[in-house]
Each structure stands twice: as C-alpha cells, then as structure tokens.
Design brief:
The protein is an alpha+beta fold. The chain is about 25% helix and about 35% strand. It contains four helices and six strands, in the order αβββαβααββ. Strands 1, 2, 3, 4, 5 and 6 form a six-stranded antiparallel beta sheet that branches. α2 (about 75-90) packs parallel to α3. The longest helix is centred in the last third of the chain and has 17 residues, at about 115-130.
C-alpha cells in the first residue's frame, strides 16, 4: 500500500491520490477493498471493516482545447460527483479536460468499485485544481451519492457506511 507523505493530518496521501506524469495529464487513483473483514451494527448503524487491496480504479484527465462537455463519457454517478466537487469547491475549470477511466475492480463482487470510481475522480479533480483533500471533503461528496466503504483511507478502518462516519482506525 502507498504511504502517506505526512503533509496534513487527515489528508488523503498524495502518493495514492494522483500523479502528474506530464503537464497535460492528471491521474486520480483509489484502491478497492477485498470484501469486509467484519460487518455488523455499531450504534444501530450498518458498519464495516474493509481490507484495502492493491487493485484500483483510475480517472485520467487530459488537457484539451476541443472539449464541449467534460462529463460526456461519464456514468451518471461520476457526473454527479463531478458536479458536487464543483459545488463544494466553487471552482469551475475542469471544462478543458477530456476524461477516461480504467479499473481493475470487478463490479458487484464486494470490491467497492463504484466508491473507488468516485474517489478516483475526486482525487483527479483535486490534482487539477491543486487542492489538498481532507477525508471530510471526500466524505461530504460520497454522502450525497451512495453508501460507501472507506476506500479513501489507507489504514484499515471501522466505518459506518450510510452515515459516512469513521469510528476507529486500526494500525
């Protein structure tokens, strides 16, 4: 697993979030999970402890001067995440990028693929805008879209899935 750069407490580690290998390309990455180590109630809320895995989803943004609608090839969930990111940070400007997506996660197999897709997009948008994300930024967007696993966290975490609340982190 990638290690945190330690730049901000609670911030998503840059090594796992994005990379800019070229000036005109940004990549956001989010690891999936290998199912739940534990699932059950915490304070009468559905909660999980998920095991992060190496397989991941990626969002790739490529700068282009010929973009009509940057969300054209996005799923409805990704489009919604894109709009929520714009609303949260009040920063338009991703219109000059075309988007592509790649995943190693299998849909419907307990790998948190849809959540990883959203988190990869959010991380890529943050990289384009030079925003250092906090966990709460990602949680705020996820909470408006779906129940989720804590794929935005590197450590194993006890997490309330519908409430999007981190209960405990394990070493």
């Amino acid at each position: 697993m990638p290690e945190s750069d330690g730049s901000r407490a609670g911030a998503s580690p840059l090594s796992s979030s994005c990379a800019l290998p070229y000036g005109d390309v940004a990549v956001g990455i989010a690891n999936g999970v290998l199912g739940e180590l534990w699932q059950g109630p915490v304070d009468e809320c559905v909660s999980v402890i998920s095991l992060p895995m190496e397989r991941a989803s990626r969002a790739i943004a490529t700068r282009s001067s010929h973009v009509i609608d940057p969300t054209l090839n996005m799923t409805p969930l990704r489009k919604a995440a894109f709009r929520l990111f714009e609303e949260r940070f009040g920063l338009p400007g991703s219109a000059n990028y075309t988007w592509s997506f790649d995943t190693e996660l299998i849909t419907g197999q307990g790998m948190a693929s849809s959540t990883a897709d959203i988190v990869a997009l959010i991380r890529c948008l943050a990289r384009i805008r030079k925003i250092s994300l906090e966990d709460e930024d990602i949680i705020n967007i996820l909470a408006k879209l779906e129940r989720s696993d804590p794929v935005f966290r590197i450590p194993v975490t006890l997490y309330k899935t519908a409430e999007h609340e981190i209960v405990e982190e394990f070493p």
